[in-house]
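Could you join me in thinking about how sequence relates to backbone shape in a protein? Label the sequence line and the structure token line clearly, so we can match residues to local backbone shapes. Once you have written the record down, we can walk along the chain together.
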Amino acid sequence: MSDTLRARLRALPDFPDDLPKFDPATAPADPVELFLSWFEAALAAGVRQPHAFSLATVGAGPGAGAPSSRMLILKDLDDDGWQFATARTSRKGRELAANPQAAMNFYWSQLGRQVRLVGPVVELSAEASAQDWAARPAADAAPNPAWQLYALRPSEIEFWQASADRRHIRHRYDLPG
């Protein structure tokens, strides 16, 4: 069965033929500017949930050192960092409390693009967390004191552009800590 699956997987198309071009030599000095440009391109291309990303944390307790990932939604991007939220009591909340480091990965397959970020994570204020909870589409009037707004402050950001000739392009920013 593995050979059949392998053959089926190899037969799947990789990326669309009309991928956008990316020349790192023309990339802005500010990675946020490049991210916002790519995000707008994803919106224009009709990418569903372009603000969705995979968040990877490292396990605490019995699973210490084991990576864990899940999909989240980018809440904002400002001087505080790349914001996301979850309950402090959730697995990811507990992992961030034990080891406040994480990685984010945005993936827009229609454009053959990924953006990967790595860095420390900080908790934002109780007021900001309460405002985020209240703004959720399904929120009722009840507060959720366990809800926490976090910000990843990247030390590294890598932009990846697929290429039809499989000479994929990587452009990396190393940021001061």
In short: The chain has four helices and nine strands. The two ends are 48 Å apart (CA to CA).
